[in-house]
Design a protein that fits this description.
heterodimer; A: about 100 residues; mainly alpha; about 0% strand; B: about 300 residues; alpha/beta; Rossmann fold; 11 helices; 7 strands
Chain lengths: ~100, ~300
Amino acid sequence: MNSGKKKFYDIIEKLKQGFLSLWETADQVAREKAVGVIEAELGELENIFGILVQGAFIGILSPPMQISLDLLPLMEKQVMIMIEKIDTANEPLSHLFSVFDIS
Amino acid sequence: MGKGGTGKSTVSALLGLLLADKAKKVMVISLDAAHNLSDIYQKRLGHKPRELRPCLYATEIDQEKMIQTYLKDVQTSLKQRYSYLTAFNIENYFDILKYSPGLEEYALILAFTNIIEKFPNFDYFIFDMPPTALSLKFFNLPFLSCKWIEHLEKLRCEINKKKEIISRVRFAGKEYEKDKILSKIRELKKLYQNVGKIFQDSSRTSVYTVINYDSLAVSETERIFNELKKINISMKKIIWNRKRIGEVFSETDNIFHSVPFFSLPFSDNQLTGFNELDNYIRICDLKISDFLKLP
């Protein structure tokens, strides 16, 4: 009887763990989907910011030079984003499709 | 302010002497790259202020040195923060950056703020300005920079809002790192706003335009007046330098009706050296009240 009860509780525990694991996975997927588009927006905004402030380095109108220079030491990340963007510049549509999960 | 060769440096030198004679601690600062102050005072002047007489100090700002120091500071900061390769790539630009448009007037702003911060015990600073075009850029720079900074601040706040959303969703509201770029932008905004306020405060800044009377000079003075008016800076007085006996301005020159003026007579002698300058002040009976009202 006791071993029967024990087996029952083990099964319940395993089911519980299974549901919890499923829940965590579903939660993670939902969170990723929720932020995915915002992250893409964020990437674009950071890119725009980089272009606005440091555009002179890629041939684009920029603010008074001293503002660009004063902010430059704090903007390594934005400079790297701009350099990375050059790789996808030839295929902007495929990048956009991938963001919106269109296949 | 004024066209090149109108006698701005001489007028600055005279005003410096008049103030020092009244025991006001005064520094005359030449911001014009074509420095004349050392020739007028006949004393060697450099980047560091030098006492010429009791209460009278003078300096000639080395613009190129200011730009180079500034760029060097930026480069040092880059090397400390960037990864080696990124810093290496950007460093190549710095050799030509010193020729960038905008840095010349920024060097003057740096000189201006350094002087007023480093020497708070002076009663007066007389800035012998470069010719009109650069002077107007100098006065405009804080306001133009503020417009850009406000736009960048707005965009940066939008970026941070998105980061906050992501942090709340992904990291259950854990606080993300403080945005150093936004802090720097706000620091720059404060700097430019403060400089702009100093320029616009007529109790702290008086702009004198020096002219040698002719139609071109009058047109230019009107342009200066209008450009300064756009940024709420008033012209204190027009100084009609090298006025010859019998010379009068034309009634159609409206600028003389809008702005108070006084004249400095033409001198046959070269106004260089303290003897000549003191002589000129005595002969023309020049008083400090011709220029400004002492508190």
